[in-house]
Predict the structure.
Amino acid sequence: MDETMARHVAEAASALRRILLAESGDLAGLPCPPGAARTAAIDSRAAPSNRPQPAADTRRAPDPLRETRPPVARQPSANPPQHQIAIPQPSPEFPGGLEELASRVRSCTLCSLHESRTNTVFGEGCITTPQVMFVGEGPGADEDLTGRPFVGASGQLLDRMIVAMGLRREDCYIANVVKCRPPHDATPLPNQAGACMPFLRAQISMIKPQFLVALGASAANAITGSQDGVARLRGRIHRYGDIPMVVTYHPAALLRNADYKRPTWTDLQMVMARLRSE
Ligand code: URA
């Protein structure tokens, strides 16, 4: 193994270790970059770095989402793109900013989902212009119990997707359309998604991600307003206001059907290419 390869392997091992240790307290101690506002309720374990990483070498990583394959390590770019880091600003509906938004979510009774929830799942991660904000459908059992998004089986795959993109979970923000677990993990009903959307919209507008990734049809439909499925919406860059966005398959779909991995990886590469070009 030559020196470069050895460095790549060490970087990959370290990235994986960080993700494997990413239980509630373990990341809380990582340093926040200057200006990264953080609160326990909203951003309990973020350590945003906003440090862009070059993309994977896809010729050598045909299936970077495969469970058994270590993530492809990347070298930091010599000229990383510079981004304006925006500190979340309150929106008119939520003058208290993200804190108020999270508190309104915690006490929300706008739809029937509140009746069966253990915890609301507001979202977590970097709140100062994260490189990517992932939006899923809604909490499952693990998320309902912990109050954290994407910590179950889908979350573990999402973590691998993030590492394969050359990012760290804490470089991203992760949220859902609905903040309470639907009973039997059903797809949220239109009235449930509709009741929760003002929260997600405010979250996006305060956090100002550089890129949005809608995971699955529920997120795609709620954000774009389109009724089309993922197959029709994926593969191109949409815009949510001035934020570029891609739609791709939900990690749970990839766990059910490995055929979705390749198109998903193609979509994520689009995100990486755009982030690199900025
Ligand atoms: N699926 C989602 O859509 N969101 C989560 O947080 C977990 C699983």
In short: Residues 12-41, 43-61, 68-78 have pLDDT under 50 and may be disordered.
